[in-house]
Amino acid sequence: MKHVCIVYSQEDREIKDQLEAQLRDIDHEVCCDTWEDSHIQPGSRWFSGFRHSIEKAHVVVLIFSSYFLKSPFISEKKFARILERSQNKGVVVLSFYAKLCLWERIAWLNTLPVFPIGRKSLVEMDEPLQSGILREFAEYVFDFFDIEEQDSSNTPV
User: Fold this and answer.
1) For every residue of the chain, which 3-state class applies, written as one string?
2) From the CB of residue 102, how many other CB atoms can be counted at a distance below 10 Å?
3) Which of 20, 22, 147, 150 could disulfide-pair with 138, CB 3.0 to 4.6 Å?
4) What integer pLDDT is reported at residue 54 of this predicted model?
């Protein structure tokens, strides 16, 4: 099964929902684990659940905006696990530029590929273009599954 972990801020839920719908349009079997800052309750053991989602994910998508970047949930320390897994275990980490923010000033975010390519966030685009961009991104995510499947089929048994 294909596992995607989508991490986002509650203020960006509509964009997450649209992306998730595009992913499911391409493959109904895709499993999307979603993590937003409002799911974290004070004193809860949320990080173990988050870590479990990251461990089983093939692709991690960060939907980022100023809301995402200012959330106490989002920090380099907390994302060290994602970045470590991407370097050591081959999980793909993709970032999606949802709403205007100063992402270029965030060192760890600058190490990731940013979609859409260029400098415009999704909300700066016309409505019809937004749907097309979300569709392209969903296809981009599935390209990594295709590469993984090709690599596993080339592995000698």
Assistant:
1) CCEEEEEECHHHHHHHHHHHHHHHHHCCCCEEEEEEHHHCCCCCCHHHHHHHHHHHCCEEEEEECHHHHHCCCCCHHHHHHHHHHHHHCCCEEEEEECCCCCHHHCCCHHHCCEECCCCCCHHHCCHHHHHHHHHHHHHHHHHHHHHHHHHHHCCCC
2) 8
3) 22
4) 78
The pLDDT of 18-27, averaged and rounded, is 87
Domain boundaries, the chain: 3-153
135 CB-contact burial (10 Å; exposed 0-12 / middle 13-18 / buried 19+): middle
Cα 114 from chain centroid? 10
18 backbone dihedrals φ, ψ, rounded to 5°: -65, -40
Are the C-beta atoms of residues 61 and 91 closer than 8 Å to each other?
no
**pTM greater than 0.70:** yes
Q: Are 44 and 76 in contact (CB under 8 A)?
A: no
CATH architecture of 3-153: 3-Layer(aba) Sandwich (3.40)
